[in-house]
Design a protein that fits this description.
The chain is α/β, with parallel strands linked by helices. It has a single domain, classed as Spore Coat Polysaccharide Biosynthesis Protein SpsA, Chain A (Alpha-Beta Complex), CATH 3.90.550. 34% of the residues lie in helices and 22% in strands. Helix 10 packs across helix 11. It is globular and about 60 Å long. The N and C termini lie far apart (62 Å). The structure holds uridine 5'-triphosphate (UTP). Uridine 5'-triphosphate binds next to helix 5.
Length: 312
């Protein structure tokens, strides 16, 4: 059994071109989903898995993220004077979220490059990676289970989503072999009911016919720190970017004693991808409908809106 996972890296330094023009001056990870920026949902997910050391990878245009997680004494004093305890609690909550560090990526040369920038902060420990613009429904959190598999096997663990065959070209595709939790190498408890695969290779955004399966890599990973050495020798791949998927493919072919071995867990819950405009709109509607304070009024209005459009 390897050491317990306690660190999470959140890459959030990308250009966010799919969300222009909003992402010109505001990091796309700061665009609100109902009333919290996407990045806050992501950090909450890491904390819920017990990962209370979080490192955000940012770039110089994205200071708003640092301000979001810092105390705001003037605002807090103003809310205190007004006796607005609920909003004061909401503001304070963002600055009491574990220990949050910030590392600049510099040039956004790809997700693999962003993760590699965290090497010093990771300091040789196993660590999770959560993409800064997508998050899971709190009822379906799975990062904790992924950490248990990493701790038991000593390898790396990725989250997989079954997608319709025509959509796999938007993701990384994996070559999977199903494995029962009891047959995983190593010792230690792994929660029941998970669909686990041993992964032998991956390819990023495969051309039609070149996909290994329709199991897609989605934005949650738990790594053996060996990935950081692998990333140093990973050449730019698809789109000229250093692809995390390429480094994971190398890990999959490495022996366990060198930190190799990759396992995938299939996710069957709700996921929100806020980096894409249509998916973002769906996320806002679904999360607003679930809220106890907004949901009843919002869904009544939404039903009326949809039925008047249907009749128009
Ligand atoms: P995306 O590919 O969704 O982000 O990467 P992007 O490049 O910002 O988006 P588009 O395609 O131009 O709209 C997923 C996550 O990885 C981060 C992004 O900020 C996002 O949270 N990322 C991506 C980095 O931190 N650095 C990079 O070089 C690339």
């Amino acid at each position: 059994m390897t050491s317990r996972v306690r660190k999470a890296v959140v890459p959030a330094a990308g250009l966010g071109t799919r969300f222009l023009p909003a992402s010109k001056a505001i990091p796309k990870e700061m665009i609100p989903v109902v009333d919290k920026p996407a990045i806050q949902y992501v950090v909450d997910e890491a904390l819920a898995a017990g990962l209370d050391h979080v490192c955000l990878i940012t770039n110089p245009g994205k200071e708003a993220m640092e301000r979001h997680f810092a105390p705001a004494p003037d605002l807090e004093a103003a809310l205190e004077r007004k006796g607005d305890q609920a909003r004061l609690d909401a503001v304070r909550e963002t600055s009491s979220k574990g220990e949050i560090a910030f590392v600049n990526q510099g040039d956004p040369k790809g997700l693999g490059h962003a993760v590699g920038r965290a090497e010093e902060w990771v300091d040789g420990e196993p660590f999770a990676v959560l993409l800064g613009d997508d998050f899971l429904d709190a009822d379906d959190y799975i990062l904790d289970a992924m950490c248990r598999i990493q701790e038991r096997t000593g390898g790396s663990v990725i989250l997989l989503l079954e997608v319709p065959p025509h959509m796999i070209q938007m993701y990384g595709s994996v070559d999977p072999t199903s494995v029962a939790a009891v047959d995983l190498p190593g010792e230690g408890e792994v929660p029941d009911g998970l669909e686990i695969h041993r992964i032998s290779r991956l390819n990023e955004k495969p051309a039609p016919g070149e996909e290994y399966s329709n199991l897609a890599v989605i934005g949650r990973y738990v790594f053996n720190p060996a990935v950081l050495d692998v990333l140093k020798t990973t050449p730019p791949g698809r789109g000229g970017e250093i692809q995390l998927t390429d480094a994971i493919s190398t890990l999959a072919s490495m022996p366990a004693e060198d930190g190799g071995g990759v396992y995938g867990v299939v996710f069957r819950g709700h996921r929100y991808d806020t980096g894409d405009k249509l998916e973002y709109l769906k996320a806002v509607v679904q999360l607003a409908a679930k809220r106890t304070d907004l949901g009843p009024d919002f869904t009544t209005w939404l039903q009326g809106f949809v039925s008047t459009r249907d009749n128009a």
